[in-house]
Structures are given as C-alpha cells and as structure tokens.
Design goal:
There is one protein chain. The protein is mainly alpha-helical. The protein folds into two domains: 3-79, no CATH class; 81-111, no CATH class. It contains four helices and two strands. The protein has a two-stranded antiparallel ribbon with strand order 1-2. A hairpin with a 6-residue loop joins strand 1 and strand 2 (96-100). The radius of gyration is 19 Å and the shape is extended. The two termini are 36 Å apart. GO terms for molecular function: cholesterol binding. This is OSBP1 protein. It holds the Pfam family Oxysterol_BP. It comes from Calcarius ornatus (Chestnut-collared longspur).
Amino acid sequence: DNAENMYFFSELALTLNEPEERVAPTDSRLRPDQRLMESGRWDEANVEKQRLEEKQRAVRRRREAEAVEAMEEGKDYEGYLPLWFERKVDAVTGELICVYKGGYWEAKDKQDWSVCPDIF
C-alpha cells in the first residue's frame, strides 16, 4: 500500500534506519548528520557530515603516525581492532572475513558501552 509514495521500497528497507533504544553509541542509526537529514535540516546535516568526516580523517592520521612511530622503534603495531568482530580466513574460500566474537549482546543487556569509541 502507498508504495509509490515510498519510492517503491519494501517495508524492510523503509524501516532499516529507524532509531532503536538501548543500542551502542556507535550504532550508525545514531549518526547526527543522518538524523538531521531525515528531519529535513539539510544545511545543518551537511555541516555535521563535514565535521564527522574530518574527525575520521584525524583518527586515521593519528593511527598512521602511531604505526610509523612503532615501526621506527621496532615495535609491533596492531592498528584498529573491531570490538565485536575478529578477522579470520574463511576455510573454504580463503578470503578474509569478519566473524562475530561476542560481547555486544552482553554490553547491551548491561547498558555498559564503556569500550565503545567516541565516533560521532
């Protein structure tokens, strides 16, 4: 019903970005630029998007500098490690994949997001 007014998206597609309570502060549905855009505040959304992108670039530059410093000192540098997933080689395809390693649902139950980085 009313599909022509919903860009012919399925009900699932239309609800994928709906806010949900009690999620990690890193959940992409909490992106402030996205929320501003969805409320029609385009200029503010664009400014916020630029701020977020620059914040991401700064984090990348810091990690790259840390990697160079570690290399110069002859130390290992792990770099970014996902919180809820680990990289593994798929036994069948030989491709690098990400496999859930646990912790998210426990953190959600406790509402303890202290391990989450400030990405927004």
